[in-house]
Design goal:
- Two copies of one chain form a homodimer.
- Chain A has nine helices and twelve strands.
- The first copy, chain A, has 257 residues and is α+β, with helices and mostly antiparallel strands.
- In chain A, strand 5 and strand 6 form a beta hairpin.
- In chain A, helix 4 packs across helix 5 and helix 7 packs across helix 8.
- The structure holds a DNA duplex (30 and 30 nucleotides).
DNA sequence: CGCCTTGTTGAAAACACTCAACTAGAGTGG
DNA sequence: CCACTCTAGTTGAGTGTTTTCAACAAGGCG
Protein backbone atom coordinates (compact mmCIF):
# COMPACT_ATOMS: atom_id res chain seq x y z
CA UNK A 1 0.00 0.00 0.00
CA UNK A 2 1.83 3.09 -1.23
CA UNK A 3 1.50 6.60 0.15
CA UNK A 4 0.38 9.02 -2.54
CA UNK A 5 -2.73 8.65 -4.65
CA UNK A 6 -4.41 5.27 -4.56
CA UNK A 7 -8.05 4.43 -4.18
CA UNK A 8 -10.23 2.53 -1.77
CA UNK A 9 -10.48 -1.22 -2.16
CA UNK A 10 -13.89 -2.63 -1.26
CA UNK A 11 -13.57 -6.10 0.20
CA UNK A 12 -16.07 -8.90 0.19
CA UNK A 13 -18.71 -8.88 2.87
CA UNK A 14 -19.38 -12.60 2.86
CA UNK A 15 -17.18 -13.52 5.80
CA UNK A 16 -18.10 -13.38 9.48
CA UNK A 17 -17.82 -9.83 10.79
CA UNK A 18 -17.26 -10.72 14.43
CA UNK A 19 -13.60 -9.74 14.50
CA UNK A 20 -14.43 -6.45 12.84
CA UNK A 21 -16.13 -5.14 15.96
CA UNK A 22 -13.53 -6.64 18.33
CA UNK A 23 -11.77 -3.39 19.19
CA UNK A 24 -15.07 -1.50 19.40
CA UNK A 25 -16.47 -4.03 21.83
CA UNK A 26 -13.28 -3.88 23.87
CA UNK A 27 -13.66 -0.10 24.08
CA UNK A 28 -17.34 -0.38 25.02
CA UNK A 29 -16.57 -2.89 27.75
CA UNK A 30 -14.34 -0.37 29.44
CA UNK A 31 -17.44 1.78 29.91
CA UNK A 32 -20.34 -0.66 30.28
CA UNK A 33 -21.17 -4.30 29.76
CA UNK A 34 -21.90 -5.65 26.30
CA UNK A 35 -24.14 -8.69 25.91
CA UNK A 36 -23.57 -11.41 23.34
CA UNK A 37 -26.72 -10.31 21.55
CA UNK A 38 -25.56 -6.72 21.37
CA UNK A 39 -22.22 -7.81 20.03
CA UNK A 40 -23.91 -9.90 17.36
CA UNK A 41 -26.30 -7.08 16.52
CA UNK A 42 -23.35 -4.76 15.98
CA UNK A 43 -21.55 -7.26 13.78
CA UNK A 44 -24.73 -7.76 11.77
CA UNK A 45 -25.00 -4.05 11.10
CA UNK A 46 -21.64 -3.96 9.34
CA UNK A 47 -21.96 -3.13 5.68
CA UNK A 48 -18.96 -2.76 3.45
CA UNK A 49 -15.37 -3.13 4.57
CA UNK A 50 -12.78 -0.94 2.89
CA UNK A 51 -9.08 -0.31 2.79
CA UNK A 52 -7.67 3.14 2.11
CA UNK A 53 -4.04 4.15 1.68
CA UNK A 54 -2.53 6.90 3.81
CA UNK A 55 -3.42 10.35 2.55
CA UNK A 56 -6.85 9.41 1.25
CA UNK A 57 -9.85 11.52 2.17
CA UNK A 58 -12.59 9.07 3.15
CA UNK A 59 -15.37 11.54 3.80
CA UNK A 60 -15.77 15.12 2.71
CA UNK A 61 -17.48 17.82 4.71
CA UNK A 62 -20.96 19.03 3.78
CA UNK A 63 -21.81 15.96 1.70
CA UNK A 64 -24.84 13.87 2.68
CA UNK A 65 -23.72 10.96 4.87
CA UNK A 66 -25.45 7.60 4.65
CA UNK A 67 -23.15 5.47 6.76
CA UNK A 68 -20.93 5.74 9.81
CA UNK A 69 -17.35 4.57 9.81
CA UNK A 70 -15.73 2.24 12.31
CA UNK A 71 -11.95 2.24 12.20
CA UNK A 72 -10.54 -1.29 12.35
CA UNK A 73 -6.86 -0.69 11.65
CA UNK A 74 -4.58 2.33 11.30
CA UNK A 75 -5.13 5.94 12.26
CA UNK A 76 -7.23 8.63 10.73
CA UNK A 77 -7.99 12.24 11.45
CA UNK A 78 -10.92 14.56 11.36
CA UNK A 79 -9.78 17.87 9.99
CA UNK A 80 -10.78 21.27 8.72
CA UNK A 81 -9.06 21.91 5.44
CA UNK A 82 -10.12 25.54 5.22
CA UNK A 83 -9.38 27.10 1.87
CA UNK A 84 -6.84 29.58 3.22
CA UNK A 85 -4.75 28.86 6.28
CA UNK A 86 -3.28 25.57 7.20
CA UNK A 87 -4.96 22.28 7.99
CA UNK A 88 -6.17 21.78 11.53
CA UNK A 89 -6.79 18.30 12.85
CA UNK A 90 -9.65 18.33 15.37
CA UNK A 91 -9.67 14.65 16.26
CA UNK A 92 -7.43 11.62 16.00
CA UNK A 93 -8.91 8.14 15.70
CA UNK A 94 -7.52 4.71 16.35
CA UNK A 95 -8.73 1.13 15.99
CA UNK A 96 -12.13 0.63 17.61
CA UNK A 97 -13.21 4.25 17.22
CA UNK A 98 -16.51 5.14 15.63
CA UNK A 99 -15.17 8.00 13.58
CA UNK A 100 -18.34 9.71 12.47
CA UNK A 101 -21.11 8.22 14.55
CA UNK A 102 -22.44 11.76 14.90
CA UNK A 103 -23.28 11.82 11.21
CA UNK A 104 -26.16 9.52 12.13
CA UNK A 105 -27.76 12.56 13.75
CA UNK A 106 -26.26 15.40 11.73
CA UNK A 107 -26.81 13.93 8.24
CA UNK A 108 -23.68 15.74 7.01
CA UNK A 109 -20.33 16.44 8.58
CA UNK A 110 -18.68 19.78 9.18
CA UNK A 111 -15.20 18.34 8.60
CA UNK A 112 -13.25 15.93 6.40
CA UNK A 113 -12.07 12.49 7.45
CA UNK A 114 -8.66 11.49 6.12
CA UNK A 115 -6.36 8.52 6.55
CA UNK A 116 -3.08 9.28 8.33
CA UNK A 117 -1.79 5.76 7.79
CA UNK A 118 -3.11 2.95 5.65
CA UNK A 119 -6.48 2.14 7.21
CA UNK A 120 -9.11 -0.55 7.24
CA UNK A 121 -12.63 0.59 8.03
CA UNK A 122 -16.10 -0.88 8.32
CA UNK A 123 -19.11 1.07 7.09
CA UNK A 124 -22.35 0.91 9.09
CA UNK A 125 -25.28 2.04 6.93
CA UNK A 126 -27.37 4.59 8.79
CA UNK A 127 -30.53 2.61 8.15
CA UNK A 128 -29.00 -0.36 9.97
CA UNK A 129 -27.66 1.76 12.83
CA UNK A 130 -30.97 3.53 13.14
CA UNK A 131 -32.82 0.23 13.43
CA UNK A 132 -30.25 -0.92 15.98
CA UNK A 133 -30.94 2.10 18.20
CA UNK A 134 -34.64 1.29 18.07
CA UNK A 135 -34.42 -2.42 18.82
CA UNK A 136 -31.50 -2.26 21.28
CA UNK A 137 -32.07 0.66 23.67
CA UNK A 138 -29.08 -0.19 25.83
CA UNK A 139 -26.80 -0.32 22.83
CA UNK A 140 -28.28 2.99 21.70
CA UNK A 141 -27.27 4.53 25.02
CA UNK A 142 -23.76 3.18 24.62
CA UNK A 143 -23.50 4.74 21.17
CA UNK A 144 -24.72 8.03 22.61
CA UNK A 145 -22.09 7.59 25.30
CA UNK A 146 -19.39 7.19 22.66
CA UNK A 147 -20.31 10.50 21.03
CA UNK A 148 -20.30 12.13 24.44
CA UNK A 149 -16.83 10.79 25.28
CA UNK A 150 -15.74 12.09 21.92
CA UNK A 151 -16.85 15.53 23.03
CA UNK A 152 -14.93 15.11 26.30
CA UNK A 153 -11.78 14.50 24.27
CA UNK A 154 -12.55 17.61 22.22
CA UNK A 155 -12.71 19.64 25.42
CA UNK A 156 -9.33 18.40 26.50
CA UNK A 157 -7.93 19.44 23.13
CA UNK A 158 -9.37 22.91 23.66
CA UNK A 159 -7.83 23.16 27.10
CA UNK A 160 -4.51 21.93 25.79
CA UNK A 161 -4.11 24.97 23.55
CA UNK A 162 -3.32 27.29 26.41
CA UNK A 163 -0.18 25.37 27.33
CA UNK A 164 3.36 25.45 26.00
CA UNK A 165 4.36 23.41 22.96
CA UNK A 166 6.20 20.81 25.03
CA UNK A 167 3.25 20.28 27.35
CA UNK A 168 0.85 20.12 24.39
CA UNK A 169 2.82 17.38 22.70
CA UNK A 170 3.41 15.49 25.95
CA UNK A 171 -0.30 15.62 26.73
CA UNK A 172 -1.20 14.38 23.27
CA UNK A 173 1.19 11.46 23.68
CA UNK A 174 -0.34 10.61 27.06
CA UNK A 175 -3.81 10.61 25.54
CA UNK A 176 -2.73 8.37 22.69
CA UNK A 177 -1.07 5.97 25.11
CA UNK A 178 -4.24 5.48 27.16
CA UNK A 179 -6.54 5.15 24.18
CA UNK A 180 -4.24 2.74 22.39
CA UNK A 181 -3.77 0.72 25.58
CA UNK A 182 -7.54 0.25 25.83
CA UNK A 183 -7.51 -1.70 22.58
CA UNK A 184 -4.23 -3.43 23.32
CA UNK A 185 -2.02 -1.33 21.06
CA UNK A 186 0.14 0.32 23.71
CA UNK A 187 2.03 -0.57 26.86
CA UNK A 188 3.33 1.74 29.56
CA UNK A 189 6.58 1.81 27.60
CA UNK A 190 5.19 3.16 24.37
CA UNK A 191 3.39 2.43 21.10
CA UNK A 192 3.67 2.44 17.34
CA UNK A 193 3.24 5.98 16.08
CA UNK A 194 3.49 6.02 12.33
CA UNK A 195 2.62 9.68 11.79
CA UNK A 196 4.69 12.46 10.27
CA UNK A 197 5.80 15.42 12.31
CA UNK A 198 3.51 17.44 10.08
CA UNK A 199 0.55 15.39 11.27
CA UNK A 200 1.50 15.97 14.88
CA UNK A 201 1.91 19.66 14.14
CA UNK A 202 -1.61 19.93 12.73
CA UNK A 203 -2.98 18.19 15.82
CA UNK A 204 -1.14 20.36 18.29
CA UNK A 205 -1.77 23.56 16.35
CA UNK A 206 1.95 24.13 15.84
CA UNK A 207 4.23 24.18 12.81
CA UNK A 208 6.13 21.11 11.73
CA UNK A 209 9.41 22.88 12.42
CA UNK A 210 8.40 23.66 15.96
CA UNK A 211 7.17 20.12 16.54
CA UNK A 212 10.59 18.92 15.50
CA UNK A 213 12.29 21.15 18.05
CA UNK A 214 9.76 20.20 20.70
CA UNK A 215 10.26 16.47 20.13
CA UNK A 216 13.99 16.99 20.47
CA UNK A 217 13.41 18.77 23.76
CA UNK A 218 11.21 15.93 25.03
CA UNK A 219 13.85 13.45 23.94
CA UNK A 220 16.64 15.36 25.66
CA UNK A 221 14.69 15.60 28.90
CA UNK A 222 13.98 11.88 28.62
CA UNK A 223 10.23 12.37 28.73
CA UNK A 224 9.40 10.69 25.41
CA UNK A 225 11.37 9.48 22.43
CA UNK A 226 9.40 9.81 19.21
CA UNK A 227 11.38 8.45 16.30
CA UNK A 228 11.16 6.04 13.38
CA UNK A 229 7.45 5.42 13.77
CA UNK A 230 7.72 4.65 17.46
CA UNK A 231 6.89 6.54 20.63
CA UNK A 232 8.94 5.30 23.58
CA UNK A 233 8.10 6.43 27.09
CA UNK A 234 10.89 5.85 29.63
CA UNK A 235 8.73 6.84 32.61
CA UNK A 236 5.00 7.17 32.02
CA UNK A 237 4.27 8.82 35.36
CA UNK A 238 7.01 11.38 34.78
CA UNK A 239 5.53 12.22 31.35
CA UNK A 240 2.04 12.52 32.82
CA UNK A 241 3.25 14.80 35.58
CA UNK A 242 5.00 17.01 33.06
CA UNK A 243 1.89 17.15 30.86
CA UNK A 244 -0.53 17.59 33.74
CA UNK A 245 -2.36 14.60 32.31
CA UNK A 246 -5.31 13.07 34.13
CA UNK A 247 -6.94 10.21 32.17
CA UNK A 248 -10.35 10.43 33.84
CA UNK A 249 -11.81 12.41 30.93
CA UNK A 250 -11.53 9.28 28.80
CA UNK A 251 -14.04 7.55 31.09
CA UNK A 252 -12.25 4.24 30.73
CA UNK A 253 -11.95 3.49 34.41
CA UNK A 254 -13.83 0.22 34.35
CA UNK A 255 -11.40 -2.66 34.01
CA UNK A 256 -12.25 -5.05 31.19
CA UNK A 257 -13.70 -8.38 32.19
CA UNK B 1 -28.12 40.12 42.53
CA UNK B 2 -24.60 41.07 43.45
CA UNK B 3 -21.37 39.80 41.89
CA UNK B 4 -19.12 38.20 44.45
CA UNK B 5 -20.08 35.48 46.89
CA UNK B 6 -23.78 34.78 47.15
CA UNK B 7 -25.60 31.48 47.13
CA UNK B 8 -28.19 29.79 44.98
CA UNK B 9 -31.83 30.65 45.58
CA UNK B 10 -34.20 27.75 45.03
CA UNK B 11 -37.55 28.96 43.73
CA UNK B 12 -40.93 27.33 44.06
CA UNK B 13 -41.81 24.67 41.55
CA UNK B 14 -45.58 25.09 41.81
CA UNK B 15 -46.03 27.33 38.79
CA UNK B 16 -46.43 26.21 35.19
CA UNK B 17 -43.03 25.38 33.68
CA UNK B 18 -44.02 25.96 30.07
CA UNK B 19 -42.07 29.19 29.68
CA UNK B 20 -39.01 27.56 31.22
CA UNK B 21 -38.47 25.42 28.16
CA UNK B 22 -39.34 28.21 25.69
CA UNK B 23 -35.80 28.94 24.56
CA UNK B 24 -34.91 25.24 24.46
CA UNK B 25 -37.90 24.48 22.26
CA UNK B 26 -37.01 27.38 20.01
CA UNK B 27 -33.50 25.95 19.63
CA UNK B 28 -34.85 22.45 18.96
CA UNK B 29 -37.24 23.76 16.32
CA UNK B 30 -34.32 25.07 14.33
CA UNK B 31 -33.14 21.49 13.97
CA UNK B 32 -36.30 19.38 13.94
CA UNK B 33 -39.99 19.63 14.69
CA UNK B 34 -41.24 19.50 18.27
CA UNK B 35 -44.73 18.20 18.98
CA UNK B 36 -47.03 19.63 21.63
CA UNK B 37 -46.71 16.41 23.58
CA UNK B 38 -42.93 16.52 23.50
CA UNK B 39 -42.97 20.11 24.65
CA UNK B 40 -45.26 19.21 27.54
CA UNK B 41 -43.15 16.18 28.40
CA UNK B 42 -40.07 18.37 28.60
CA UNK B 43 -41.81 20.91 30.80
CA UNK B 44 -43.05 18.12 33.06
CA UNK B 45 -39.51 16.85 33.56
CA UNK B 46 -38.39 20.14 35.07
CA UNK B 47 -37.41 19.79 38.70
CA UNK B 48 -36.06 22.67 40.69
CA UNK B 49 -35.52 26.17 39.35
CA UNK B 50 -32.57 28.10 40.72
CA UNK B 51 -30.94 31.47 40.52
CA UNK B 52 -27.19 31.90 40.91
CA UNK B 53 -25.19 35.13 41.04
CA UNK B 54 -22.28 35.70 38.67
CA UNK B 55 -19.13 33.93 39.79
CA UNK B 56 -20.89 30.99 41.38
CA UNK B 57 -19.76 27.48 40.59
CA UNK B 58 -22.93 25.49 39.92
CA UNK B 59 -21.38 22.11 39.32
CA UNK B 60 -17.99 20.77 40.26
CA UNK B 61 -16.01 18.26 38.24
CA UNK B 62 -15.73 14.64 39.35
CA UNK B 63 -18.77 14.78 41.63
CA UNK B 64 -21.68 12.40 40.98
CA UNK B 65 -24.31 14.22 38.87
CA UNK B 66 -28.00 13.51 39.39
CA UNK B 67 -29.57 16.19 37.25
CA UNK B 68 -28.91 18.09 34.04
CA UNK B 69 -29.04 21.84 33.85
CA UNK B 70 -31.01 23.92 31.37
CA UNK B 71 -29.95 27.56 31.23
CA UNK B 72 -32.96 29.89 31.18
CA UNK B 73 -31.32 33.28 31.58
CA UNK B 74 -27.77 34.65 31.60
CA UNK B 75 -24.53 33.05 30.49
CA UNK B 76 -22.43 30.36 32.01
CA UNK B 77 -19.23 28.59 31.18
CA UNK B 78 -17.80 25.13 31.34
CA UNK B 79 -14.21 25.37 32.44
CA UNK B 80 -11.15 23.53 33.58
CA UNK B 81 -9.82 25.17 36.68
CA UNK B 82 -6.63 23.13 36.80
CA UNK B 83 -4.67 23.59 39.99
CA UNK B 84 -1.70 25.23 38.32
CA UNK B 85 -2.03 27.28 35.17
CA UNK B 86 -4.82 29.60 34.32
CA UNK B 87 -8.50 28.87 33.84
CA UNK B 88 -9.55 27.65 30.44
CA UNK B 89 -13.16 27.97 29.36
CA UNK B 90 -14.10 25.09 27.04
CA UNK B 91 -17.72 26.05 26.35
CA UNK B 92 -19.98 29.07 26.62
CA UNK B 93 -23.69 28.65 27.20
CA UNK B 94 -26.67 30.89 26.64
CA UNK B 95 -30.40 30.75 27.28
CA UNK B 96 -31.93 27.55 25.93
CA UNK B 97 -28.73 25.52 26.20
CA UNK B 98 -28.68 22.18 27.96
CA UNK B 99 -25.42 22.77 29.76
CA UNK B 100 -24.58 19.31 30.99
CA UNK B 101 -26.90 16.98 29.19
CA UNK B 102 -23.91 14.69 28.74
CA UNK B 103 -23.81 14.06 32.49
CA UNK B 104 -26.89 11.88 31.88
CA UNK B 105 -24.52 9.42 30.22
CA UNK B 106 -21.25 10.17 31.96
CA UNK B 107 -22.55 10.23 35.55
CA UNK B 108 -19.88 12.78 36.47
CA UNK B 109 -18.39 15.73 34.65
CA UNK B 110 -14.78 16.34 33.74
CA UNK B 111 -15.16 20.12 34.17
CA UNK B 112 -16.76 22.77 36.36
CA UNK B 113 -19.82 24.80 35.42
CA UNK B 114 -19.74 28.42 36.56
CA UNK B 115 -21.99 31.44 36.13
CA UNK B 116 -20.47 34.27 34.08
CA UNK B 117 -23.47 36.51 34.71
CA UNK B 118 -26.37 36.14 37.08
CA UNK B 119 -28.16 33.06 35.80
CA UNK B 120 -31.50 31.29 36.09
CA UNK B 121 -31.42 27.56 35.52
CA UNK B 122 -33.83 24.63 35.55
CA UNK B 123 -32.70 21.27 36.86
CA UNK B 124 -33.89 18.11 35.10
CA UNK B 125 -33.44 15.09 37.39
CA UNK B 126 -31.71 12.28 35.54
CA UNK B 127 -34.44 9.84 36.50
CA UNK B 128 -37.00 12.05 34.75
CA UNK B 129 -34.78 12.58 31.71
CA UNK B 130 -34.04 8.91 31.50
CA UNK B 131 -37.73 8.05 31.53
CA UNK B 132 -38.27 10.71 28.88
CA UNK B 133 -35.74 9.10 26.55
CA UNK B 134 -37.51 5.77 26.99
CA UNK B 135 -41.07 6.98 26.42
CA UNK B 136 -40.28 9.60 23.75
CA UNK B 137 -37.80 8.13 21.26
CA UNK B 138 -37.97 11.10 18.93
CA UNK B 139 -37.24 13.48 21.78
CA UNK B 140 -34.39 11.20 22.83
CA UNK B 141 -32.87 11.55 19.39
CA UNK B 142 -33.18 15.32 19.61
CA UNK B 143 -31.36 15.32 22.94
CA UNK B 144 -28.64 13.16 21.43
CA UNK B 145 -28.54 15.65 18.58
CA UNK B 146 -27.99 18.49 21.06
CA UNK B 147 -24.95 16.78 22.56
CA UNK B 148 -23.62 16.16 19.08
CA UNK B 149 -24.01 19.80 18.07
CA UNK B 150 -22.23 20.67 21.28
CA UNK B 151 -19.30 18.59 20.06
CA UNK B 152 -19.41 20.38 16.70
CA UNK B 153 -18.99 23.67 18.53
CA UNK B 154 -16.07 22.17 20.45
CA UNK B 155 -14.41 21.28 17.18
CA UNK B 156 -14.74 24.80 15.92
CA UNK B 157 -13.11 26.04 19.13
CA UNK B 158 -10.21 23.66 18.52
CA UNK B 159 -9.79 24.88 14.96
CA UNK B 160 -9.97 28.49 16.11
CA UNK B 161 -6.80 28.13 18.14
CA UNK B 162 -4.54 28.09 15.12
CA UNK B 163 -5.58 31.59 14.08
CA UNK B 164 -4.45 35.04 15.15
CA UNK B 165 -5.88 36.70 18.22
CA UNK B 166 -8.03 39.09 16.21
CA UNK B 167 -9.53 36.31 14.12
CA UNK B 168 -10.13 34.20 17.22
CA UNK B 169 -12.09 36.94 18.93
CA UNK B 170 -13.98 37.87 15.78
CA UNK B 171 -14.92 34.23 15.23
CA UNK B 172 -16.11 33.90 18.81
CA UNK B 173 -18.29 36.99 18.40
CA UNK B 174 -19.77 35.58 15.18
CA UNK B 175 -20.62 32.34 16.92
CA UNK B 176 -22.26 34.15 19.81
CA UNK B 177 -24.27 36.28 17.42
CA UNK B 178 -25.76 33.27 15.62
CA UNK B 179 -26.49 31.30 18.76
CA UNK B 180 -28.06 34.28 20.51
CA UNK B 181 -30.10 35.13 17.42
CA UNK B 182 -31.61 31.64 17.45
CA UNK B 183 -33.25 32.36 20.79
CA UNK B 184 -34.05 35.97 19.91
CA UNK B 185 -31.26 37.61 21.90
CA UNK B 186 -29.26 39.09 19.04
CA UNK B 187 -29.82 40.99 15.82
CA UNK B 188 -27.43 41.45 12.91
CA UNK B 189 -26.34 44.67 14.63
CA UNK B 190 -25.21 43.09 17.89
CA UNK B 191 -26.16 41.74 21.29
CA UNK B 192 -25.81 42.19 25.02
CA UNK B 193 -22.44 40.83 26.11
CA UNK B 194 -22.05 41.25 29.83
CA UNK B 195 -18.74 39.44 30.23
CA UNK B 196 -15.41 40.72 31.46
CA UNK B 197 -12.39 40.84 29.19
CA UNK B 198 -10.93 38.20 31.47
CA UNK B 199 -13.80 35.89 30.59
CA UNK B 200 -13.25 36.46 26.88
CA UNK B 201 -9.54 35.83 27.38
CA UNK B 202 -10.17 32.48 29.03
CA UNK B 203 -12.45 31.50 26.14
CA UNK B 204 -10.03 32.54 23.42
CA UNK B 205 -7.00 31.13 25.21
CA UNK B 206 -5.37 34.54 25.44
CA UNK B 207 -4.43 36.84 28.28
CA UNK B 208 -6.79 39.59 29.44
CA UNK B 209 -4.22 42.18 28.43
CA UNK B 210 -4.04 40.87 24.91
CA UNK B 211 -7.82 40.64 24.64
CA UNK B 212 -7.92 44.29 25.51
CA UNK B 213 -5.49 45.18 22.73
CA UNK B 214 -7.31 42.88 20.31
CA UNK B 215 -10.71 44.43 21.05
CA UNK B 216 -9.21 47.86 20.43
CA UNK B 217 -7.90 46.65 17.09
CA UNK B 218 -11.32 45.25 16.13
CA UNK B 219 -12.89 48.54 17.18
CA UNK B 220 -10.40 50.60 15.17
CA UNK B 221 -10.96 48.48 12.07
CA UNK B 222 -14.72 48.88 12.59
CA UNK B 223 -15.28 45.14 12.70
CA UNK B 224 -16.88 44.97 16.15
CA UNK B 225 -17.29 47.34 19.06
CA UNK B 226 -17.27 45.50 22.38
CA UNK B 227 -17.83 47.95 25.21
CA UNK B 228 -20.00 48.55 28.25
CA UNK B 229 -21.65 45.14 28.17
CA UNK B 230 -22.57 45.43 24.52
CA UNK B 231 -21.22 43.95 21.31
CA UNK B 232 -22.04 46.12 18.29
CA UNK B 233 -21.45 44.84 14.80
CA UNK B 234 -21.40 47.55 12.11
CA UNK B 235 -21.29 45.06 9.23
CA UNK B 236 -21.96 41.41 10.06
CA UNK B 237 -20.80 40.10 6.68
CA UNK B 238 -17.55 42.01 6.96
CA UNK B 239 -16.92 40.55 10.41
CA UNK B 240 -17.71 37.04 9.17
CA UNK B 241 -15.38 37.44 6.21
CA UNK B 242 -12.61 38.62 8.49
CA UNK B 243 -13.15 35.71 10.88
CA UNK B 244 -13.62 33.14 8.14
CA UNK B 245 -16.89 32.29 9.85
CA UNK B 246 -19.28 29.78 8.33
CA UNK B 247 -22.32 29.10 10.55
CA UNK B 248 -23.16 25.69 9.11
CA UNK B 249 -21.46 23.89 12.01
CA UNK B 250 -24.25 25.12 14.29
CA UNK B 251 -26.75 23.09 12.25
CA UNK B 252 -29.41 25.74 12.67
CA UNK B 253 -30.31 26.06 9.03
CA UNK B 254 -33.95 25.15 9.39
CA UNK B 255 -36.02 28.31 9.72
CA UNK B 256 -38.35 28.30 12.73
CA UNK B 257 -42.02 27.77 11.97
C1' DC C 1 -13.50 57.46 51.75
C1' DG C 2 -10.89 53.37 50.78
C1' DC C 3 -10.97 48.90 48.64
C1' DC C 4 -11.73 45.94 45.03
C1' DT C 5 -12.46 44.63 40.29
C1' DT C 6 -12.09 45.89 35.56
C1' DG C 7 -10.11 48.15 31.91
C1' DT C 8 -6.10 50.45 29.72
C1' DT C 9 -1.43 51.32 28.19
C1' DG C 10 3.86 50.83 27.92
C1' DA C 11 8.16 48.25 27.70
C1' DA C 12 10.74 44.08 27.79
C1' DA C 13 10.95 39.16 27.48
C1' DA C 14 9.47 34.65 25.91
C1' DC C 15 7.63 31.89 22.62
C1' DA C 16 6.44 30.20 18.15
C1' DC C 17 6.74 31.22 13.18
C1' DT C 18 8.96 32.04 8.74
C1' DC C 19 12.45 31.49 5.59
C1' DA C 20 16.18 28.98 4.22
C1' DA C 21 19.49 25.47 3.66
C1' DC C 22 20.83 20.88 4.11
C1' DT C 23 20.63 15.58 5.15
C1' DA C 24 18.78 11.11 4.56
C1' DG C 25 16.04 7.65 2.53
C1' DA C 26 12.61 5.73 -0.77
C1' DG C 27 11.07 5.27 -5.26
C1' DT C 28 11.60 6.20 -10.38
C1' DG C 29 13.36 5.83 -14.81
C1' DG C 30 17.18 6.12 -17.94
C1' DC D 1 23.75 1.20 -11.56
C1' DC D 2 23.21 5.80 -11.01
C1' DA D 3 21.28 10.22 -11.39
C1' DC D 4 16.79 12.34 -10.26
C1' DT D 5 13.01 13.55 -7.55
C1' DC D 6 10.15 13.19 -3.93
C1' DT D 7 9.05 13.45 1.07
C1' DA D 8 10.43 13.78 5.84
C1' DG D 9 13.33 15.34 9.10
C1' DT D 10 16.80 18.63 11.02
C1' DT D 11 19.02 22.93 12.18
C1' DG D 12 20.13 28.14 12.08
C1' DA D 13 18.96 32.97 11.98
C1' DG D 14 15.72 36.60 11.97
C1' DT D 15 10.92 38.11 12.58
C1' DG D 16 6.49 38.61 14.64
C1' DT D 17 3.05 37.73 18.01
C1' DT D 18 1.73 37.11 22.57
C1' DT D 19 2.98 37.20 27.38
C1' DT D 20 4.71 39.15 31.45
C1' DC D 21 5.43 42.77 34.55
C1' DA D 22 4.15 47.11 35.92
C1' DA D 23 1.63 51.23 36.57
C1' DC D 24 -2.45 53.82 36.54
C1' DA D 25 -7.58 55.29 35.65
C1' DA D 26 -12.53 54.53 36.43
C1' DG D 27 -16.38 52.77 38.71
C1' DG D 28 -19.06 50.06 42.23
C1' DC D 29 -19.64 48.89 46.88
C1' DG D 30 -19.16 48.65 51.85
Amino acid sequence: MSRPGGVASPLTNMENNGHVVDALVRALERRDSVSERERDALAAAVGEIRIHPAGNTLIRAHRPAEASTLLIEGMLAREFSSAVGRRQIVALHIAGDFVDLHSLLLKKLDHDVTALTDVKVALFPHVALRRLTETEPHLARMLWLLTVIDAAVHREWIARTSHSAAVKVAHLLCEMQVRLAIVGLATDQGFVLDLTQGDLADMAGLTAVHINRTLRKLRESELAIVRDGLASIPDLQKLRDFAGFDPTYLYAEQTPR
